């Protein structure tokens, strides 16, 4: 049975099945306790982890999200079982780090990664339309660079042990969220947990972990990627991955209707703002950064579980980007963009455009 399921995930139906399952589970996670329209958001969850580790002190967004650990471990186990665990690294790691950082800054100006943009749309948040338009625009700019020969260079096979770091880190996060240790003299920190706000809203740990493991496994087998879907559709007219995105949105929408979580409109949406310009521009930055790095944030986590050290560097760039966003007033809130969010978005776009121009290879 498992062999047949694996064959199905590896077929052209794989992204559709994975997208549908992710859409279903993401909507249900909100029912089970996760924040509104944020059943699964890699950017938001990474931000919460950064806060829980004390990298920023925004008290309302601090929690060690088990879903993230599950993505990594599910991918790792899948890669081991199917002999696709191949540690590799060496493809412009410093650039990838900063791409991850700016991708996170753009996502927090919008308030969500590509996965959450689609979930917000499926929940009736029409502000997500501007974000998705920005995402497509950013991917489009990245595609132009790819057509012009952009490349971050090849990666090289690394010792097998180097690929174990991310799975071990994921296990450490699970231990910390279960034990919730307090090492400080006042009985708090260095692990912090929100007592109010989005960080305090979460599904039971075991449910979050099971969902993460399943999604990590399925995404590793099917190569599900929300950014690669649009890239492939435009560049090679291949709808293989894009059909998975459509399934993701449709199933999440249907599930929200059934469980009473569909609330259409612009105003009063959970953890969202109505500034159309910066919803758009934030996701232009994220879409461009994700395209140059080779995949959406979920795909980066999955690849890091497979042993891809370059993807792991990108993930750590996202973690630092989350800390920078909250420590330097870049992250938006329900009231709108923060004081320096728009400026940081422009800086990020300049950086990404410079990388796109500089890292072009000579085409024969």
From TrEMBL:
Protein name, entry field: Uncharacterized protein
Origin superkingdom: Bacteria
Organism: Aminobacterium colombiense (strain DSM 12261 / ALA-1)
TM spans (from-to): 12-30, 63-82, 94-117, 129-150, 162-183, 203-220, 241-260, 280-299, 311-328, 340-359
Coiled coil: none
Keywords: Membrane, Transmembrane, Transmembrane helix
